[in-house]
Predict the structure.
Amino acid sequence: KVQDYSLLSAVVDIEKKELNDLGNDLMERMGSGILLLCVIEGENCQLYLKVSPDLVKKGIHANALIKQISELIEGSGGGKKEMAQAGGKNSKGVIIAFDKIEEMLRD
């Protein structure tokens, strides 16, 4: 928990194409919260960020958050208010991205 929000951030060992299905399943179980998943393939990585509809209504938008953390993985990303993705070439930045999203939710 960060502030009043449930946050789940994890590196997952799945194919990139499976991120959406896993994200939907986990968000359904969480009910309300922010989900940040990462797949690492060598030096490259993919971030997947999902925000529950109730938090989107409170002004927490996945596309805004992903833009701020994608630079930490030397990448870029975008998406919609409820789901966004970013690809990058610095997998070492993933842990920093996990810390950064917590910091952003506290502010």
Q: What stands out?
A: The chain has a mean pLDDT of 95. The first strand starts at residue 7 and ends at 11. Strands lie at 7-11, 34-41, 44-51, 75-79, 83-88. The chain is about 35% helix and 30% strand.
